[in-house]
Amino acid sequence: MEIRQLRYLVTIVEAGGFTRAAERVHVAQPGVSAQIRLLERELGQELLDRSGRGVSLTDAGAAVLPFARAALRAIDDLREVADELAGLMRGHVRLGMVTSCGVPDMPLLLERFHRDYPGIDITLVEDDSHALVDQLRDGTLDVALIALTRKDPEGLTLSVIADEAVVAAVGYGEPLSDRESVGLGALEEHTLISMPVGSGMRDVLDEACTAAGVRPRIGLEATNPSMLARLAARGLGVAIVPESTADEHTETVHKVRIVRPSLRGRLAMAWRTEGQRSTAARALVELAGGVPT
């Protein structure tokens, strides 16, 4: 069994087929296919189902995949430890980021990281928090910036780097624009503009509404908090946004605190509790803790 065979297997699954995998590893497709056949012959099991239009894992392949990923992580860790002992700082970190997250400033974070550790390559993945948590758990990602709800995800260690109120934003002259606060239950009477299902802020809103027996009427959805505020400024509804977003749009929207209960949005750097973090991942987590929000 060779390391490249395991790497090819993982790449085929992540890329969705032999052709794209071959492009990623810069090897001709027949060479990739031949190595997978050798791996299957050694294990005595077919790992990939090639009978359909695409390629999918067999039951044996699904059982082997986590171990293949773990083996590759171990090899990467071994190389990074050797580099550290030699006084080097090389490696690769796979970073996830919650969709349309503006806190902290991710380009600024990556700029500082690259300046401090120019030998470390970064793969950046953007997705909703639920998907990022799954990718952390299965080892696809090393570390991720995720949005938290009332219940922290199990199996992950968290470093909270942002914690702020979630508020309502309304256009001037619209209902609630003369209010400083509004009860969560009263929002039933208004059309809401919110992040989509799967986003951390939407989870916070939905969990609070469920607990309070409130049935919100979501009229519009957008993935960018600033867009929510801009839609509210046009009189299209009440935007549910982070307080910092409302503060950035004070010329066009009025900020209303949500009470009974109040809502808070939290962002955290997260990584697997079990298993060794790579040197690169540890360096990124440490740097993120010092980035201003």
From TrEMBL:
Tell me which domain of life the UniProt entry assigns to the organism this sequence originates from.
Bacteria
Q: What is the native source organism of this protein? A: Actinophytocola oryzae
| Gene Ontology CC annotations of this record | protein-DNA complex
Q: HTH lysR-type domain: which residues? A: 1-58
- PANTHER family from the xrefs? LYSR SUBSTRATE-BINDING, TRANSCRIPTIONAL DUAL REGULATOR HCAR-RELATED
Entry keyword annotation includes DNA-binding: yes
* Pfam families listed in its UniProt record: HTH_1, LysR_substrate
Question: By its UniProt entry, which InterPro entries does this protein fall under?
Answer: LysR_HTH_N, LysR_subst-bd, WH-like_DNA-bd_sf, WH_DNA-bd_sf
Name assigned to this protein:
DNA-binding transcriptional LysR family regulator
Record bears the keyword Nucleus: no
- Identify the keywords attached in UniProt to this record, alphabetized: DNA-binding, Transcription, Transcription regulation
From the UniProt record, which GO molecular function terms apply? DNA binding; DNA-binding transcription factor activity
Its family remark reads:
Belongs to the LysR transcriptional regulatory family.
